């Protein structure tokens, strides 16, 4: 008997199934995860490993289906992460692709609804703050399928960011809010969502801990790009607020050229969105010879590039954390961050797209590096947990 046949019991179904497994041997609890964008594949990996470990020891059995919306589709934005992180490819790929927010999210809703009606999961799991996240939450909530939101409670308090809208909507219609940090818990309390909230630690920290050694062994990116340890800066940039505003985009690209000229080579794996916007908005811009523009790299290459960099310059949410987890200094080219602990711990400086602020932040980090290496281990554990978030997440969902 499958737990999903127990209609009308809402969030009690998985609990009842585990309980009844003692009476009726194996019961199946069905989980369906929705992913679509690069950082979500990276967050899914530890969860799948935790499910495998659970199935080895528990009397109840967890069945898992991965639904990929197709929001990201290039090999180096999608497949490479399943391969490197040794995950089975998604059972379902909606192939939604790129488009304006409404059209992209609408296509996702339509596709997800159909799959949820077919698969009838006991729980839907969503990650982070992309259009794939909010589409999953909406589709499931309307079908009365319980939703668990991993990385809930993040707030930039800037409603101009599409991600902020996705976060607020997803949190308010989810059934369990899996908060990565104490700050996220507080944000949810303020919005009256404390009862649904569980502090789990950060699942990206799980992925970093499990792969950082592997990346040292497997990635040859440093030799491929002729880079010596601590001799370059790593940069990423893809946020709409930076790529879609020609003034901000121009300021940041010129800053990268300046850093490459005055300090150290800048290695810049470029998101496809940024590539397209530079071609459209800055047709005359040319990179300095020491600004190494690469196609997006795989996760193992990225970990290697971050762990050997002097400084990271980024507007990525995930990268701000990974840089902190690997004890490297970070400059965040945004006007605010959700990951405020990286700033209050002294590991991250917010500069916006202001060239003078970026210059100053880089010079300050260079001075600090001369005094010795930086170490944030204690603050990582206080704020992001111990690298066992996936286990806490699974327990929270099942209990
Ligand atoms: C999305 C998320 C953002 C997240 C980022 C991770 C939303 C609203 N935004 O932004 O929160 O930080 O993913 O990387 O969900 N493109 C390709 N190939 C691909 C994917 C995208 O060429 O495989 C190009 C297309 O021109 C597309 C553009 O990138 O129009 C933007 O892609 P999209 O998924 O809409 O948003 P991201 O900027 O990637
Ligand atoms: N990343 C990667 N290759 C790249 C750039 C980023 O593997 O060329 C990884 C990075 O290490 C992090 C994740 O992608 O784990 C962050 O994704 P992104 O910056 O696209 O999205 P965000 O976290 O801002 O939503």
Write the layout of secondary structure elements.
Layout: H1 12-24, E1 28-35, H2 38-57, E2 61-68, H3 79-84, E3 92-93, H4 101-119, E4 123-127, H5 131-142, E5 147-150, H6 162-173, E6 176-179, H7 182-190, E7 197-199, H8 203-218, H9 221-224, E8 233-235, H10 240-243, H11 246-262, E9 266-269, H12 272-281, E10 291-294, H13 299-307, E11 311-314, H14 317-325, E12 330-332, H15 340-344, E13 348-350, H16 355-371, H17 377-384, H18 389-398
Parallel strand pairs: 1-2, 1-4, 2-3, 4-5, 5-6, 6-7, 8-9, 8-11, 9-10, 11-12, 12-13
Bound molecules: uridine-diphosphate-N-acetylglucosamine (UD1) and uridine-5'-diphosphate.
What does this structure look like?
It is a single chain. The chain has 399 residues and is an alpha/beta fold. It is 50% helix and 14% strand. The strands form two sheets. It has a seven-stranded parallel sheet, sandwiched between helices. The chain has a six-stranded parallel sheet with strand order 10-9-8-11-12-13, with helices on both faces. Helix 2 links the parallel strand 1 and strand 2. Helix 8 crosses helix 13. The N terminus is likely disordered.
């Amino acid at each position: 008997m499958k737990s999903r046949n127990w209609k009308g019991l809402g969030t009690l179904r998985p609990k009842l199934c585990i309980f009844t497994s003692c009476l009726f041997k194996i019961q199946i609890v069905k989980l369906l995860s929705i992913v679509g964008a690069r950082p979500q594949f990276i967050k899914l990996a530890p969860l799948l490993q935790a499910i495998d470990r659970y199935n080895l020891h528990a009397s109840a059995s967890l069945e898992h289906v991965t639904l990929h919306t197709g929001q990201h589709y290039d090999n180096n934005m999608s497949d490479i992460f399943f391969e490197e992180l040794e995950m089975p490819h998604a059972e379902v790929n909606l192939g939604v692709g790129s488009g304006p927010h409404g059209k992209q999210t609408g296509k996702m809703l339509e596709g997800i609804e159909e799959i949820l009606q077919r698969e009838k999961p006991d729980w839907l799991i969503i990650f982070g703050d992309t259009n794939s996240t909010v589409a999953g939450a909406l589709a499931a909530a309307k079908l009365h399928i319980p939703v668990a939101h991993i990385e809930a409670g993040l707030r930039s308090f800037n409603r101009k960011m599409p991600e902020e809208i996705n976060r607020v909507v997803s949190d308010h219609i989810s059934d369990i809010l899996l908060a990565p940090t104490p700050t996220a818990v507080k944000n949810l309390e303020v919005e009256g969502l404390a009862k649904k909230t569980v502090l789990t630690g950060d699942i990206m920290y799980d992925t970093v801990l499990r792969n950082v050694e592997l990346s040292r062994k497997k990635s040859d990116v440093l030799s491929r790009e002729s880079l010596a340890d601590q001799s370059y800066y790593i940069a990423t940039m893809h946020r709409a607020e930076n790529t879609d505003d020609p003034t901000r985009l121009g300021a940041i690209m010129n800053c990268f050229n300046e850093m490459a000229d005055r300090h150290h080579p800048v290695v810049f794996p470029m998101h496809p969105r940024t590539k397209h916007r530079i071609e459209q908005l800055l047709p005359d811009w040319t990179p300095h010879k020491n600004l190494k523009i690469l196609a997006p790299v795989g996760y193992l290459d990225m970990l290697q590039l971050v762990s050997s960099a002097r400084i990271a310059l980024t507007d990525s949410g995930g990268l701000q954390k990974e840089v902190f987890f690997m004890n490297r200094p970070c400059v965040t080219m945004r006007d605010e961050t959700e990951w405020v602990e990286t700033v209050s711990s002294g590991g991250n400086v917010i500069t916006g797209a202001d060239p003078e602020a970026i210059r100053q932040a880089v010079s300050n980090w260079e001075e600090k590096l001369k005094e010795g290496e930086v170490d944030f281990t204690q603050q990582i554990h206080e704020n992001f947990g111990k690298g066992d978030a996936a286990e806490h997440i699974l327990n929270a969902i099942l209990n």
